[in-house]
DNA sequence: TAGGCCATCTGGTCCT
DNA sequence: AGGACCAGATGGCCTA
């Protein structure tokens, strides 16, 4: 289980976590050490500095105080990482993959790479939609446009395995409602909520074997966007050339 | 058992 | 000085 924060305690590497008053998490062992050190440090502190005293430089700190400081820093770092993981979870939630108890969570690297591809795809879709909207309102007839629509003309086009993206749905309704070919599309082509994912979804290919390998990350059950498959270019994955993939995976 | 993924600790660096 | 950020090290869990 790769769960981090959200699932505090679900990960066995962080067993029996407890939360301190600052919201930090400790294993029992750590917590015991933490409490012990805290008590000792606090006691030593009151003995040495009854009035609170003024701040000491680090070189002046004794062993207990150094330990106390170390724990404080560790706690901050832990919290920082938890925040980071929460943000990662938030990102996972908006990714076009299902979440659920039976669904393996995308790894961090997979989440980031997929998010990047997803954004690129959305940007591309938006551009194409703008272009088509410009065409529609620019004089070209919808009928002729629809006739040219591959989803209409290419009835023999193999059923697309890709879901219709919401942006594409908007586009279809914009250019004259859902194409008939779409509504007639065989349901077998509709990705089921738990259909095996394809790495080509959203133009997403595994850039580096091992990073996004199947089946570990992407063959677990997941949910695509609801909608009918469409063979139109808008619904196709982005072209992913080797160089593109290289850029996707290597650029920082 | 090896490899992947992760959480945590730790020391260093930079910024306020 | 204190906090945020980062990267390396370490160890645990899980899966193939």
UniProtKB/TrEMBL annotation:
Residues 68-122 form the BHLH domain. One of its GO terms (cellular component) is nucleus. Keywords: DNA-binding, Nucleus, Transcription, Transcription regulation. PROSITE patterns: BHLH (PS50888). One of its GO terms (biological process) is sensory organ development. The keyword Glycosyltransferase does not apply. Coiled coil: none annotated. GO terms for molecular function: DNA-binding transcription factor activity, RNA polymerase II-specific; E-box binding; protein dimerization activity. It comes from the Eukaryota. PANTHER family: BASIC HELIX-LOOP-HELIX PROTEIN NEUROGENIN-RELATED (PTHR19290), BHLH TRANSCRIPTION FACTOR 3 (PTHR19290:SF161). This is Oligodendrocyte transcription factor 3. The lineage of its organism: Eukaryota, Metazoa, Chordata, Craniata, Vertebrata.
């Amino acid at each position: 289980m790769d769960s981090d924060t959200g699932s505090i305690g679900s990960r066995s590497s962080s067993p029996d976590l407890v939360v301190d008053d600052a919201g930090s998490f400790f294993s029992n062992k750590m917590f015991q050490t933490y409490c012990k050190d805290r008590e000792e440090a606090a006691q030593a502190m009151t003995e040495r500095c009854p009035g609170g005293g003024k701040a000491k430089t680090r070189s002046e700190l004794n062993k207990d105080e150094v330990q106390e400081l170390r724990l404080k820093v560790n706690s901050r770092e832990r919290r920082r990482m938890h925040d980071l993981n929460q943000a990662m979870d938030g990102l996972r939630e908006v990714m076009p993959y299902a979440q659920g108890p039976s669904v393996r969570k995308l790894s961090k690297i997979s989440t980031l790479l997929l998010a990047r591809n997803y954004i690129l795809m959305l940007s591309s879709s938006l551009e194409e939609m703008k272009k088509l909207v410009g065409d529609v309102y620019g004089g070209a007839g919808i009928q002729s446009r629809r006739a040219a629509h591959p989803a209409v003309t290419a009835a023999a086009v193999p059923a697309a395995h890709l879901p219709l993206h919401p942006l594409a749905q908007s586009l279809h309704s914009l250019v004259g409602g859902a194409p008939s070919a779409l509504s007639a599309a065989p349901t077998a082509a509709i990705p089921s909520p738990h259909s095996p994912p394809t790495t080509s979804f959203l133009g997403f290919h595994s850039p580096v074997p091992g990073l996004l390998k199947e089946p570990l990350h992407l063959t677990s059950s997941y949910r695509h966007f609801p909608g009918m498959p469409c063979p139109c270019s808008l619904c196709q994955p982005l072209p992913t050339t080797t160089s593109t993939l290289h850029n996707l995976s290597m650029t920082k």
